[in-house]
Every structure is written in C-alpha cells, then in structure tokens.
Write a structure and sequence with these properties.
Number of strands: 12
CATH class of the largest domain: Alpha Beta
Order of helices and strands: EHHEEEHEHEEHHEEEHEHE
Number of domains: 2
CATH superfamily of the largest domain: Gcn5-related N-acetyltransferase (GNAT)
Oligomer: single chain
Number of helices: 8
Strand order of the largest sheet: 1-2-3-4-5-12-6-11
Structural class: alpha+beta
Length: about 290
C-alpha cells in the first residue's frame, strides 16, 4: 500500500532520481543534474516540509515539489514540479498525492495553490481541472539561440547608457510594468539567487528608464521593462543585445509572458523569435 508524507526526511538525491525517471520523455527536455534541480527548487522558494511524496515500501515513487511565499499579498504554495516514476504512472497516484498535498497545505495555512502547465500536456491539465484549478493566465515562451540576434541597433534617443547594477529601486522598476511576472520570474525569486543574476539598467540623463535581468548560467531573461515614454525607440533592442552578451549559455529563454500582452508579442515577432507551445498559469483557492 502506498504511503503519502512530506519530503523533509527524504534525501534530495532520491528526489532527483525519481525526477529524472518521471521526466525522461517529457515534451520539453528536463534532465537537470542534482545540483541544477536543487538550485531551481531553491530559486522558486522550495520547502521540503510542504512538498510531498508517494512511497511504495519506503521507496519514493512520486513527488510534488512546492515553493512557498507571498503572491500578491496572499500566502501561496507554488508547484515547482510534479512527477511519478515510469512504472507507477497511470495508476491514479498523482490524483491521490494531490489530494493529500492540498489537505496538508490547508492545515499549514496556505491560502492558494499556483502552478504552470504546458498547453499540450492534456493529462496534467485534466488532473488539475478535476482538482478545481482554474486558468489564471495564458503564457507564451521563447527559447532561441543567442546568435539569432547579432545586429545591434542603436536607439533613436541620444545619450543612452546601459550599466550593470547590484540592485534596483524596485518601486520605480515596477512603475514600468504593464503585467506581473510569473512566480519564477518574480522579485522574490530573483532575490533568492541574486548572485546568479546580472541586472542592467538603462539611463538617460542619469534617470533610469528601463532595466533587464538575466540569469547568466542558463540564459534565462527573468525581467525586461522600459518606461512607457521611451518605448518603440530601439531601447529594448539595445538592452536585449546587452543581456545576450552576458549569457553563458548559447540558448536563451524568455518564458511566461502573458499571451494577451500585445506590445511584447509585437516586439518578439519583429525579431522573429520562435514561440513555443505556451503554458497555462492555474490557481486553486484553498
């Protein structure tokens, strides 16, 4: 008989082993090393006490890895990854494990449960629907070679300076936003692993009018925003080029951009960036 419990006493190497098996034929390649998986988990606010496993004779055969934090001012858990070992799939384990997890999250004061799922993963979407998760937002994502963008274009505005900084005035930065970043691109997620990111700010006459943030070792561009008055003048392109120069990975990712946010879609279309299948952001109120 299967046993469900949290993962606080389970070794991360065992979790990693099951993760690799569970995602061995996933639509998007997901075969991180143990240290890469741990890093991803920590960046997303991972908490093993509020993450859960299914055990068969004390052997881990399935997991839900959860992050925890405040999301729009609400105490929230975020599903950073759910998987079941190959030989235990299609037995209803994920459904039962979610039932256990949701009940325990409620006992621990969590008010809402957030996750993302690739649009083409119909099995997972069906499970989440049965658990009453609702689509909150629809995301696009772009994964491309940094060599795709080689010709730097200068801004039509003179005296544009792009500098590295160690921190931002986040209140000012948020005034440039039209949409909220996803959980893994949030301010909290960046600050958890700030030493792995580089922040560039755009200055015109000593005033910050935009910024971009890249995770150097993965090429993941977490945030990019320009002051409303300085858009469509080449600044975003200049900033993107500078971010690409900083990437230690040939592959660059811009993920979880709201699909209905037309300005960014138009920007990516103008650069002919290849668009992935997209994701749903889903939420369950607890």
């Amino acid at each position: 008989m299967l046993e469900f419990k949290n993962l606080q006493h389970t070794s991360f190497s065992e979790i990693h082993s099951v993760f690799i098996d569970a995602f061995s034929d996933y639509q998007v390649p997901m075969q991180p090393t143990e240290s890469e998986l741990r890093y991803m988990f920590e960046r997303r606010g991972g908490d093993l006490k509020l993450s859960y496993g299914a055990f068969d004779n004390n052997q881990l055969v399935g997991f839900i890895l959860n992050g925890v934090g405040n999301w729009n001012g609400v105490y929230t858990s975020y599903d950073t990854g759910t998987g079941i070992s190959k030989c235990f799939q299609k037995k209803g384990i994920a459904k039962d494990l979610f039932s256990y997890a949701i009940a325990d999250l409620i006992r621990n004061g969590i008010k809402q449960y957030l996750l993302e799922v690739i649009k083409t993963n119909q099995n997972a979407i069906s499970l989440y629907n049965k658990k009453s998760f609702m689509i909150n937002r629809v995301f696009d994502y772009y994964i491309f070679s940094k060599s795709l963008l080689t010709n730097r274009k200068e801004s039509s505005i003179k005296d544009v300076i792009i500098d590295k900084v160690t921190s931002l005035d986040w209140n000012k930065a948020q005034s440039f936003w039209d949409i909220l970043p996803s959980w893994q691109n949030s301010i909290d997620a960046i600050q958890r692993k700030l030493d792995r990111f580089t922040i560039l700010q755009v200055l015109i006459k000593d005033e910050c009018v935009g910024y971009g943030i890249i995770e150097r070792h993965t090429g993941d561009i977490a945030q990019l925003a320009i002051h409303h008055q300085y858009r469509r003048q080449g600044i975003a392109m200049m900033l993107l080029q500078e971010l690409l120069y900083l990437s230690q990975s040939e592959t660059v990712k811009i993920i979880n951009i709201e699909k209905n946010y037309q300005p960014f879609r138009s920007f990516c279309d103008s650069l002919q960036l290849p668009k992935g299948d997209g994701q749903y952001e889903m939420m369950l109120q607890l």
